[in-house]
Amino acid sequence: MIIKTVMVILEYALLLFICAFICKTMRAIYKDLYNDSHEKGNVRSIKKVALLVLQSYDENIINKRVLFTELITLGRGPDNNIVLSDAYVSYHHAVISHIKNQYQIEDLHSRNHTYVNEQEIRNKSFLQNGDIIKIGTTVFKFER
Amino acid sequence: MYYLKNRILLLQACLPVLAMALFYLKDASAVNNVNLSIMAVSCVIFVVVPMMAKKFLKNTDEYILPLICFLCSISLIMMLRLKVSLFYAQFRWIVIGMVLMFITIKFADKLLQLLDYPYILGLCAIIIIGSVIIFGTEIGGGLNWIIIGPFQIQPAEFSKLLILGFLATYLQENKNMLNLPNRHWIFLYLPPLRFLAPLVMIWGIALLIFVYQRNLGFALLFFGMAVMMTYAATSNKSYIFLAAVFFILASIFSYMMFGHVRVRVEIWLNPWADPMGKAYQIVQSLFALGYGGFFGTGFFHGSPELIPIVYTDFIFSAIGEEFGFIGVISVIMAYLLIFFRSAKIAFACVNEKYKLLSFGIAGTMLLQAFIILAGDTKLIPLTGITLPFISYGGSSMLSEFIAIGLLLAINAREKNRA
Fold first, then answer.
1. Of A11, A37, A28, which is closest to residue B66 (Cα–Cα)?
2. Helix B193-212 to helix B216-234 angle, to the nearest 10 degrees?
3. Is the pLDDT of residue B215 over 50?
């Protein structure tokens, strides 16, 4: 009787070991893939985008490149990432942010508006590589 | 990189121990020192080999070897269950195979140089297959063995690797030619006939094996291999159409011409016409699978020995009977995971020859497993072929280990370059 019980237990143990090995291996492979894809995701967002200054009131910053990844704010106030001390620029003028692999420019209800490719943007607009952004007297080219 | 914990390796290495414990409980007198020492050594090997490979072969895939050790341990415990004398022999083949695998990895640079001479590889394959027709011995209704002294060799297993090498190089070199659509019939885009010749030749070899050696399994495998590799290299669906036409014509022709093919097809269509005679094997296999159910009958509690030649062609039915649906699904998952990791290796390759070769190795293994699994479950007519890493058989074991060695070596090479 005892021998029979032990045999049944061993048989189920055998089945369990087979099953457990495959499950654990699958889990490990899945985790591996998951980590890989997330690492790649990070690499993609680290890839920087840039604003190239084409024209400006200030001769010194022409042809300078401003690199950023997640968020950049533009305006006259000193707490912005790019400070434009230009009378035509509002205190908090515009913000460019990273949304799902795209870059979006948002006009923060500025007095003199923001122009993308010579068009006044209403509230928000997605940016493409090579778009020309005009804020006050300063003209940027968006590069990614 | 997520670390495959070493504890997981213990799981599959424990299988022989549990099986031996059951064997002991069943019949204490059958256990002797030889059995016990083989069991202990195989446990150590199944843990040490993957760990050693991870340690010494930097940059190789760390999942393929544990999965292969898992399949080998299933093979060992099934041999212990079915026929103890084959347990020793199978253990010997596994050890020799693993040694050969490491030798292949060590000398992979030299071996991969052979890829520069594709026609020599192809010629060797033809000579090997042809030699079977001349020197071969017939065993079990199929002429595919050569007997040299104490050894029986099935040369088709090794010529498989040569043909893979030939196809990889040939297709890589002539890829543009094969994709050149200068013959345009209705909806087919085909290259000039002389570029098609080697492919047609391989299909011809398959037919030759089929006719002279009565080995349907290998014929189907070689044919599938050529079609798969061609499509992988050119992504031109015309070849698949052409192959399908060729296949259908060949099937109809052989059905008309050869008695043994007709018998196979009749058994496949209606095994219940003659369940105690011609269809005995497949009917017993179906009973075994059905009797297994979800959890199986339990190790040593089924009766798989009723199936003739259960330890090679029908080992899958024995697994299905004793381990049930769970065991079967685990084995199939193991094959799929090996294929998945190998395909990942192929995608990572920069050199296109190696890319095709590693994909070919992976695909051939999966195709071989599919052909025999489908045969056992009566999805397609039964064709005698081995289940990679599980069936008893020296030639099959060795050639599969060499193939895996090449795969791992290619992986290490390509990663070192990057």
1. A28
2. 160
3. yes
B25 and A7 in contact by Cβ < 8 A?
yes
Residues of chain B in contact with residue A15, where contact means CB-CB under 8 angstroms, are 295-296, 323-324, 326-327
Helix H or strand E encompassing A83? strand A82-83
DSSP state of B387: P
Any chain B CB within 8 A of the CB of A10?
yes
DSSP three-state, residue B225: helix
Which chain A residues contact residue B323 at CB under 8 A? 14-15, 18
At how many degrees (to 10) do helices B33-56 and B6-26 cross?
Answer: 170
3-class secondary structure, B370:
helix
Q: Is A75 left (phi over 0), alpha (psi -120 to 50) or beta?
A: left
CA nearest to B71, candidates B15, B24, B10: B15
Q: Which residue carries 């050529």 as its tokens?
A: B226
Among B363, B370, B121, B334, residue whose Cα is nearest residue B233? B363
pTM: 0.78
Mean pLDDT value of segment A13-27: 88
Stretch 11-30 of chain B: residues touching chain A, C-beta under 8 Å: 11-12, 14-15, 18-19, 21-22, 25-26
Distance (Å, rounded) from C-alpha A113 to C-alpha A120? Answer: 7
Tell me how far apart the alpha carbons of residues B192 and B57 are, in angstroms, rounded to a whole number.
Answer: 45
What does the block give as tokens for B83?
Answer: 């026929």
- Is residue B11 within 8 Å of A21, Cβ to Cβ? yes
Are B319 and B78 in contact, with CB atoms under 8 Å apart? yes
Alpha carbon separation from B293 to A128, B139, B271, B319 (Å, rounded): 59, 34, 21, 11
How do beta strands A71-75 and A82-83 pair?
parallel
User: What is the helix (H) or strand (E) element at residue B33, kind and residue range?
Assistant: helix B33-56
**Does B1 reach chain A within 8 Å, measured CB to CB?**
yes
Most confident of the ranges B44-58, B77-91, B212-226: B77-91
**Better pLDDT: B33 or B286:** B286
Q: Rounded to an integer, what distance in angstroms lies between the CA atom of residue B184 and that of residue B410? A: 38
Q: What one-letter code names the amino acid at B208?
A: L
Which DSSP symbol is given to A9?
A: H
Reading the block at residue A123, the tokens are: 């509230």
